[in-house]
Amino acid sequence: MRDEGMATPAAPGDRLMWLTTQRVFYAGLLGPVGARVLGGWGLYVSTSAADPIRVCIGGGAWQSGELLVVPPQVPHRVESARPLVLNILVEADSVDPDRLPSFMRERCGCAHAPEFVARVRAMHARLLAASGRESFEGFDFDLLFFGQALAPRVLDARIARVIERINIDPAQSASAQDCAGWVHLSFSRFLHLFKEELGVPFRSFRAWKRARSLLRYVHQPGTLTDIALDSGYPDATHFSHSIRQVYGLRPSEILAGSRRLALHDAAGVRAS
Q: In the chain, which residues have pLDDT < 50?
């Protein structure tokens, strides 16, 4: 599917990432992605109708289209003939899965939502125009891309408190036992309630949030070991293995592909 020799290089000025606590918009290089397992809803949009992208869910058949939808924790591979891909990530803990837009609820793989596809491409252009001359602080992510606020997920208050603390500092070393103590639950009761509320084990949730935090360090100077420690990993080996399991890419590949990426964090700070 991908022919590196024939692909037209993506212009550096087309690449940006808008990163918030519960959402990510990425317009950048896809690269030779292996199997990936993300902890949020992954929405992949092609840059034009003439250049569809394709996805393989698990070990199933390849599907091709302008919009690909992958629910949380679903193994998948994505390929594109063009180097630039538009990708939205919506954190599973932040939205009610039963009240998502129909194209997200009803599909896994290729989906038909032309209005959404057109909006994503238009918002890419709008953000590119804003990048470099203004912050994104005043922008409403959901309103821009979905036209409305996505319905929040209602969680047990104790589990919600734990998730909030993890979202604030994904690199913290607090164990499941520590988290149970924060909300005055026994260890076993906490693990059971967490999985009941989120649909995933606590360990998987923590692993995802830690891997996601790598996105904040793509422009950080220093070695992979420095970034690994800042992200909460004990060493570079564990860091590399965990990142590859989640993103299907080695950390070095992610960092190399982000060198010309305009990065806007949740506070609207921009780095080039």
A: 1-10, 268-272
